[in-house]
Amino acid sequence: MSAVIATAEPRVLILYSSVTGNTRRVAEALAAASGDRLLDVRKLETPPDADVLALGFWVRRGQPDEFSQSVWRSLKGRSVFYFGTLGAWPSSEHARRCREEAERLLRENGNRCLGGFLCQGRVNPRLIELSARKGTHPLTEERRARLAEAARHPDASDCAAAAEAWLAARSAALREASESSGMGCRNLAEAPA
User: Fold this and answer.
1) Cα gap 122→34, rounded to integer Å
2) Disulfide-capable partner of 79 in 34, 40, 105, 173 (CB 3.0 to 4.6 Å)?
3) Model pTM?
4) Tens digit of pLDDT for each residue in 132-169?
């Protein structure tokens, strides 16, 4: 008779921070595609107990929002996929710098960055008003057009693209974890002596 030892599967969690609902919508698409547990970072009381994480944020001043950053600082040695929403074009120089900052913050504590995804999202109208009043981001015609486009996102294609990227990153991380630690079920009768 052979004994079977089941080893623990890596724990997977999707965390997000959202003010206007943009990032929450993307997080929900990731959870629907993967079946992973979903949690708002503001409901965390202790650092997340997961090996593989998808971390969602909204961009504020070129970096992840403060709620997200406080959680990210508590993570050490995790495999992390990031996703975020911003008012800028996802292909812009600003978005490139946001990606670099997210990756820098994640790697700071020895986390492994599995990649990321950014898409446009509606900007909080209070922030638009505040930055226009301060003169930091005047409401030019170009900015009005970009913000109008951002207000239509994330859309179904953004959510599908984010889910596809998450599933690929998640699958690779779980496969690597399984191969490096011998996870899964092993039949002891067939194991070498």
Assistant:
1) 25
2) 173
3) 0.85
4) 787 777 778 988 898 999 999 999 999 999 999 999 99
Predicted local confidence at residue 42, as pLDDT: 92
- Rounded to 10 deg, the angle between the 22-34 and 156-181 helix axes is 50
Q: Using one digit for the tens of pLDDT, what is the confidence trace for 96-111? A: 999 999 999 999 999 9
3-class secondary structure per residue, 67-96: HHHHHHCCCCCCEEEEEEEECCCCCCHHHH
Tell me the CB-side half-sphere exposure of residue 162, using CA atoms within 13 A. Answer: 32
53 touches 79 (CB < 8 A): yes
Nearest to 88 by CA among 46, 54, 114, 127: 127
- Tokens in use for 48? 């997340």
The Cα 58–Cα 41 span in angstroms is 12
CA distance 118 to 85: 6
